[in-house]
Amino acid sequence: MTVHPVTVNLAEPIYRRMQRAAERTQRSVEQLIGDALAAMTPEQAELPTNLQTALAQMAFLNDAALWQAARTTLQLEQQQRLAALHDQQQRTRLTLAEQAEEQTLLKLYRETQLVRAQAIVLLMQRGYDVADPEQFAPIV
Q1: Cβ contacts of residue 137 below 8 Å, gap of 6+?
Q2: Is residue 95 a contact partner of residue 122, using CB atoms and an 8 Å limit?
Q3: Domains of the chain, residue spans
Q4: Dihedral angle sign, alpha carbons of residues 117, 119, 124, 129
Q5: This prediction's pTM
Q6: Is the CB of residue 79 less than 8 Å from the CB of residue 73?
Q7: For 2-56, how does the pLDDT look when each residue is reduced to its tens digit (9 = 90+)?
Q8: Residue 110 to residues 83, 107, 122: CA-CA distances in angstroms?
Q9: I want to staple 44 with a disulfide (CB 3.0 to 4.6 A). Which of 30, 52, 71, 101 is the partner?
């Protein structure tokens, strides 16, 4: 991948924040800024425009909102219905209506996972330790 040098002027408090985050994550400030920019502009050509916008806007959320997004899951009823459809599909053929319902639930599941992943990337870039998956369990 070709790398292009870019000069960015940062206010002192922002630079210090970036420097501390870089030290915590054992990376350079340049790497941290590059990763932050990459997270704000992910490759999303195949995603719906509204999802692309939502993922890009996540960079502007505060930490509490990102933690909440990182814990987002399908509703229990949706999880159960998707599992039931998958089980049924193993035994018999789904009807057209059931296939459509499964596709809708799978799309929602994938979008939820994208939001969670984006939130976790942003939290990591802000210096949080995201190694323990238990911290992303839904809050009940």
Answers
A1: 71
A2: no
A3: 42-136
A4: negative
A5: 0.66
A6: yes
A7: 888 888 888 898 888 888 878 877 778 888 788 777 766 656 557 888 888 899 8
A8: 15, 5, 18
A9: 52
